[in-house]
């Protein structure tokens, strides 16, 4: 699916960061793009930056009824990319378990909700790109629940790749290392962010963090190459190779 002319792509988290870079790339390849997030103004600003191929739909992907309304509004879907979600850090003793539940609500169940309502709208040749993170394969401090979430998304992606293959719908997972220039929300203060960046750079063989363009190029490859299926693709400068 290299040429995306006339295709419809839904990108959750498409208003900022990784999702926005992917939306820009897919629009540049000819796709119509639907940007999904909770904050309508931010989405509208992103859509007008992309141009006439982009539109926005405000929805909280953790809320099933809002995701149903999103896909009810669409004639069909060719590409689904699920980048909505934030991050949370805490030790096992200090992090209230409910905070991990909240993280799963948007970032894991959001992806399930989107797949559940998008798949019936997808035609043969469609592609899904889920978004996890390298937390299940490399140690990220104070991130036990997030690590579990990354592993859960990877497992879901591989399982769905097999389930949906008979319908010629491919499923792959983008697994970013630490990516800068995003608006990611977390509970870390400035010194916590600095520590995380230092730890990530030290753990990364390339000794630098990534940028949203790196993830957009990788997501496009997962969409365009019609023999990629069931892949978990780390975009991490080699962090998980160590
Ligand atoms: N940046 C990294 O280093 C990194 C590493 C590994 C994984 N990731 C994952 O990659 C994804 C993209 O992150 P990013 O770094 O690009 O951060 P970002 O710029 O904050 O993007 C996240 C987007 O998701 C939207 N969002 C969050 N919760 C949502 C919900 N419940 N429903 C709908 N939209 C929601 C946000 O918009 P609203 O707030 O307006 O809804 C925002 O536009 C996230 O899942 C993140 O956890 C990021």
Explain the overall architecture.
This protein is α/β, with parallel strands linked by helices. The chain has a single domain, classed as Rossmann fold (3-Layer(aba) Sandwich), CATH 3.40.50.720. It contains 7 helices and 7 strands; from the N terminus they run E-H-E-H-E-H-E-H-E-H-E-H-H-E. A 7-stranded parallel sheet has the order 3-2-1-4-5-6-7, sandwiched between helices. The longest helix is centred in the middle third of the chain and has 22 residues. The mean pLDDT is 97. It binds NADP nicotinamide-adenine-dinucleotide phosphate. The site of NADP nicotinamide-adenine-dinucleotide phosphate has 32 residues, from helix 1, strand 2 and helix 4.
Question: How is the topology of this model organized?
Answer:
Layout: E1 8-12, H1 17-28, E2 32-37, H2 40-50, E3 54-58, H3 64-72, E4 77-82, H4 97-118, E5 122-131, H5 144-164, E6 170-176, H6 190-203, H7 212-224, E7 232-235
Parallel strand pairs: 1-2, 1-4, 2-3, 4-5, 5-6, 6-7
The structure holds NADP nicotinamide-adenine-dinucleotide phosphate.
NADP nicotinamide-adenine-dinucleotide phosphate is lined by residues 12-13, 15-19, 36-39, 42, 60-62, 83-87, 106-107, 110, 131, 133, 176, 178-179, 182-185.
Summary, kept brief:
The protein is of the alpha/beta class. It has helices at 17-28, 40-50, 64-72, 97-118, 144-164, 190-203, 212-224, and strands at residues 8-12, 32-37, 54-58, 77-82, 122-131, 170-176, 232-235. The radius of gyration is 17 Å and the shape is globular.
């Amino acid at each position: 699916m290299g040429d995306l002319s006339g295709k419809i792509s839904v990108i959750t988290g498409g208003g900022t960061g990784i999702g926005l870079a992917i939306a820009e790339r897919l629009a540049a390849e000819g796709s119509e793009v639907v940007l999904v997030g909770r904050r309508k103004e931010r989405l509208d600003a992103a859509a007008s930056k992309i141009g006439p191929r982009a539109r926005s739909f405000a929805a909280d992907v953790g809320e099933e009824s809002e995701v149903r309304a999103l896909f009810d509004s669409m004639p069909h879907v060719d590409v689904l990319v699920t980048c909505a979600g934030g991050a949370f850090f805490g030790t096992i003793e200090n992090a209230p378990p409910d905070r991990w539940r909240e993280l799963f609500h948007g970032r894991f169940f959001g992806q399930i909700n989107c797949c559940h309502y998008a798949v019936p709208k997808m035609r043969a040749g469609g592609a899904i790109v889920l978004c996890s993170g390298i937390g299940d394969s490399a140690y990220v401090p104070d991130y036990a629940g997030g690590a579990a979430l990354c592993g859960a998304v990877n497992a879901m992606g591989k399982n769905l790749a097999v389930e949906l293959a008979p319908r010629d719908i491919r499923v792959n997972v983008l697994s970013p290392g630490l990516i800068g220039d995003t608006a990611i929300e977390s509970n870390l203060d400035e010194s916590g962010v600095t520590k995380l960046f230092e730890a990530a750079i030290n753990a990364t063989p390339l000794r630098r963090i990534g940028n949203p363009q790196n993830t957009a190029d990788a997501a496009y490859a997962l969409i365009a190459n019609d023999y990629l299926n069931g892949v978990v693709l780390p975009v991490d400068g080699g962090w998980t190779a160590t």
